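FORM 12-B: Structure-to-Sequence Request
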């Protein structure tokens, strides 16, 4: 399948039967457990935000948004093709930070260490393949991170800075990225529910 001959699947406006989708790396259980423990310590310190459910924390490579249900197979196939030539890599999770900054924090995250250049290459291959299907390219440089929570109200910058200073030495892993997943995201009153549509192994054009 070449990008030149790939049929565009991205709709101009959301209508009809769609699947809200994204492409990400699912985390191993031991990393999820470590992140849950970090969140518990942040809560105990008094940091108030809407914490991401530990089982929903993942390493996002590309958010697709609404995808026509009829095009999901094409997106899955393109994902498999994108990662088939990328080697497995070893990364870890480390540190603590906020977007866009401490003065007006909106998102708290832990960062990614290890083979980050290989990770950036993986993300770029996915980005390029999805652009070939009509999905808009992300203009910002990729920054691998895991979202721990979001601040719903104006946060106290001093409290956020204290939390970063106290827990900034966090580290979990390392672990090997062996595959990426195409997820469906369903929004519910209790928060998003994620379902794996398909998984694709790195270094081989296969479904896992």
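FORM 12-B RESPONSE
SEQUENCE OUT:
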């Amino acid at each position: 399948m070449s990008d030149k001959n790939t049929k565009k699947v991205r709709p101009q406006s959301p209508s009809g039967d769609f699947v809200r989708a994204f492409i990400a790396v699912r985390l191993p259980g031991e990393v999820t457990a470590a992140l849950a423990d970090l969140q518990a310590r942040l809560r105990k310190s008094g940091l108030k935000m809407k914490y991401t459910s530990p089982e929903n924390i993942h390493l996002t490579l590309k958010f697709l948004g609404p995808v026509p249900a009829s095009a999901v197979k094409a997106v899955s196939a393109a994902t498999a093709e994108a990662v088939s030539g990328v080697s497995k890599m070893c990364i870890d999770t480390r540190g603590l930070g906020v977007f866009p900054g401490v003065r007006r924090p909106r998102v708290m995250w832990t960062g990614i260490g290890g083979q980050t250049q290989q990770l950036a290459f993986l993300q770029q291959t996915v980005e390029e393949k999805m652009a070939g299907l009509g999905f808009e390219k992300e203009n910002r440089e990729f920054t691998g991170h895991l979202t721990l929570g979001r601040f719903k109200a104006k946060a106290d910058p001093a409290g956020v800075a204290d939390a970063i200073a106290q827990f900034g030495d966090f580290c979990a892993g390392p672990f090997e990225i062996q595959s990426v997943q195409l997820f469906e995201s369903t929004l519910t009153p209790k928060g998003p529910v994620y379902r794996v549509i398909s998984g694709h192994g790195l270094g081989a054009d296969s479904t896992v």
